Structure formats: C-alpha cells, structure tokens
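Justification of resources, computational component.

The compute hours requested in this renewal are based largely on the per-chain cost of generating structure records like the one below. Each record pairs the submitted sequence with a full structure-token output. That output is archived, and it is also reused by downstream analysis tasks.
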Amino acid sequence: MIYLDNAATTWPKPPAVIDAAAEAMLFSGGNPGRGSHPLAEAAAELVYTCRETAGRFFGASPDRVVFTSGATASLNIAIRGLIPPGRHILYDNLCHNAVRRPIIAMVREGLAEAEQFDASGDNDAILASLCGKIRPNTALIVATHQANICSKVLPLRKIGALCKARGIPFVVDASQSAGHIPIDLDRDGISALAVPGHKGLYGPQGVGLLVLGEGVLPRPLLYGGAGIRSLDAKMPEELPERLEAGTLPLPAIAGLLAGIRWVEGQGIDAIRSRTAALSSSFTSGLGPRFTVHGPSDGSVVSFTHNILSPAEIGTALAEEGICVRTGFHCAPDAHRTLGTGPDGSVRVSFSAWNTATDVERILNVLHRLDEYSFPSLDFRRNS
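The structure output for this chain reads:
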C-alpha cells in the first residue's frame, strides 16, 4: 500500500512515537497535576517536558503551550476566546472548516461580523486585500499558513507585522505548515497558533496545541477540573490550566513529544525539501489530461481530470492500494477560490516517508485510467 493522504494525518508514525505512547500507558498512569504520588509526578514531568519542547519549537514559553484535542479545538478556543462581542473578524478564503464554521456560527449568533480577504494572489495582493478590508472595529485576523488543498503559503511574517502595527490579535491555522515550515510566534507576530499533533509533527491523533503569545489570554471554551484552585467556581486565570479543563491525553502527549523530537532530528528544511521534490516530480509527470489547482511546490498537490471525477480517480487508485483524498477536503472556500469544479479535486500529499517509487506507482495508474470501467469514460466512448 502507498499512503499519500498525509495532509489528513501522517502515516506511518515513527517507531519512537509508538513506543512513547505505549510507555506512557505502562509507566505514567497518573493524572498530571492531580496528585503527589509517583505516577502522577511522572505524568506531570512528561507533560512539562512536552510543553518545553513544543515551546522551543514554536518560540513560546512552556506555560503558554496549551494542550487540546487538535487544531480544530485550538482554533475554536482562539476565535471564540479572543474577540469581544459584536466586533469584526477578517479571515482568508483558503480556510478550512475549522476556521470557517466557528466564525459563521458566531455571525449567526449575533456575536460577530466577519469578512474574507483574498489569499489567492501574490504576497502584495494578499496584503492589499487584507488592508483594504480592515475596519475600525476589526478585532481579529485569522489566516491559514498553508492551504489545505495545495501548497499555497501565506506571508505570515508580513501579516503578523501588519496586525502588530494595528493592534489586532493574529490567529494562525498551522494545520498544514507545522513541522513543514519554521514558525516563531514572536518573529512572526502571532497571537495564537493552532497546531495538530498528528500531521507534520508525526504524533498520534487526539492531541493538538494552542500556542499563545505573551499577554494573550483567551476566554475558556471548556469548564471543569484544572488541577488547581479547586474551590473556585471559575476557571483559573493562569495558563495553561485556564484552557485545559479535564484529563489530558497523556499517551498522545508522550507520542507528540517523540514526534517533535523526530522532526527536529530529521530537520524541517530537509523534510520540506524532500516532499517538495516529490511534489514537483509528480506534477511534472501528470500529463495534459490533468489540471493542477494552486501552487504545488510544497507537500500538497490538488488536481482534476478532463473527464473523470475525483471520486472515480480515487476509486481507481484505491483498487491499486494507493491512498489519496478526494472531494472538498473540508475546505469549500478554498475550492471555490481555486476553481476546482463541482466535485472538488484529488489531493495527493507527501510525507518524509514517501519515495520516488511511490510517485512512479501513482503516475503509472493515472496514465492507465482508460483501462478502467467508469460511467464517465463509458459515456465518452459511446457518444
């Protein structure tokens, strides 16, 4: 089997990630911050080590690294927790539903106004679109660092500098960039960074990070036990406990720690160079029947066929043991922006594990699509 759906979740996981998660279940069974016995202390040490490592990786202090269930939860906390009621939100038109739906829900609830800026052009055009839509009551800007359906990267540092100059909090969805592109909160002017553990950091599913800049304190989205100030009726003011209600997913955090260390060992630049080379080889070999949508110079390529639907292509590839993603990839705005068509696209996404042989295999199947029986091709043949 060839796995080319790494933008959804990286697979396989490094052996060290699997070992770390298993070891946490065997030897660190206590709840961190919920006791002084040896198992709880071991759990707390593991959690803090992961905070330190992630903080160093993204340029933040450990206490500002908040564990969540994933980037979706992180984005919900940041978007809902940082904007005062009735203010204006700006977000890009390449966004994932994890950005789009919380914002639309707030608009429908009368809690915010919202508008999109155009992220499809070059950096100057993106900044011009953003500047042209900032209002006096704009209180939050949300940007997708790298798109979900192609390798388009937004000018993070320039947007961050603009937000800092205007005094507007800046939330970044790093779901496709964390582990692929270096990110530093202070350098890039980021207020809140949403990070999945299971994609470019090669960790397990079920854990993510909300990394916060200095002085940034979102309102809690969840309420419950935090391990401190149990007699208070409200959540603590201190981070990270303020945003971490309930029991943390200790085995997943252990795996995430191992995943970050693995990425550091491989080197972000080396991983990106490898996946970019595979993407380039793949796109150059597609041929005239295929259209590539958006930039493809990173790890993600979206394409369509001049006759077959994405679903039909996905079926043919699956029959050959090749795993890709088809459809709209939870990013309908991005598909509209890039004009992929009524059925979305086929998305191929590479990881550090993929090889030139994987590219050869998928291209071989794509060049033999005429051999398959599909309604679209059958109609074409009979017409």
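DSSP finds 13 helices and 13 strands in the chain. The first helix runs from residue 15 to 27.
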